[in-house]
Amino acid sequence: MEQANSEIQIKPRDYKSAIKPVWCPGCGDFAVLNSITKALAFKSLPREEVALITGIGCSSRIAAYTSVYGFHGVHGRALALASGLKAAREDLTVLVAGGDGDGLSIGGNHFIHACRRNMDMTYIIMDNEVYGMTKGQASPTTAPDWAKSKLTPGGTGLRPFQPAGLALTAGASFIARGFTGDPNGLARILVAAIEHKGFSFVHVLSPCPTFRPEQMQWKHHVSAFGEEASSDPIQAAQRIQADDGMSTGIIFQREYPVFQPRCETCGTIEQIESEFTL
Question: Using one digit for the tens of pLDDT, what is the confidence trace for 93-119?
């Protein structure tokens, strides 16, 4: 991707911290980290104007690997934390990241209300259809017949969530799907998500080589959507239902009223800082 502003020579690596990721070799989350930093560099966003909020799980470690403002929250509560931050600091570019378990199980209620609230932030779910950090349990996106978990040796028997369909139904104004095997394509999606005014949801297919090694074959099945993003929720729903979950691109984008509460007691940054002066 070309630099958005040639006068500001900021590189993707400038958004990375000195902490080295501890993800398993081959984990798709490495590519998500690279895509996020590429998108931020393309936008030439000052690090102090960006915040990355995460929950709990393998993917949620990503906040520690960046050099922007970050908050590693509790399980499933990343969107609640991010909403509070955005309410108090409208000027910040707020990114939220987590996994399919963190975002769609314990965090599912926060997810659907964040979609309908439509605050101006970008939510990235790295979906590997498994709880990786806690050793391979089925997640809300796991196929009903996947039987390799000791907790569900016969499979869950439950239909999985469709993250994009759930976001559309709940009212998200930007919905896209990316793949870690195409980090540049994912970075372009993230740029569009950041530029969109409202709640942007980016569903990322991120293989787990440790507990779901068969997902390494996703690269042979992923393809781009053949159509431009729709602004019609009915058309978008039809696209999602007709798809096998392996198509990437921007699915839905529409301008909805953005919710931004006015904080009468927040004060300026200088006033907030003064309260912490010893």
Answer: 999 999 999 999 999 999 999 999 999
The length of the chain is 278
Identify which of 229, 231, 230, 225 has the alpha carbon closest to the alpha carbon of residue 244: 225
Tell me how far apart the alpha carbons of residues 177 and 141 are, in angstroms, rounded to a whole number: 14
Report the C-alpha gap between 79 and 82 in whole angstroms.
5
Q: Edge-to-edge, what's the strand order for the sheet holding 247-253?
A: 69-72, 50-54, 93-99, 121-127, 199-205, 174-179, 247-253, 223-224
pTM for the full predicted model: 0.91
User: Where do the domains of the chain lie, and which CATH numbers do they carry?
Assistant: 42-274 (3.40.50.970)
Q: How far is CA 54 from the centre of its chain?
A: 9
**What is the pLDDT at residue 277?**
82
For 57, which DSSP code?
S
| Number of CB atoms found within 10 A of residue 214's CB | 11
Backbone φ and ψ for 273, nearest 5 degrees, come out as: -60, -35
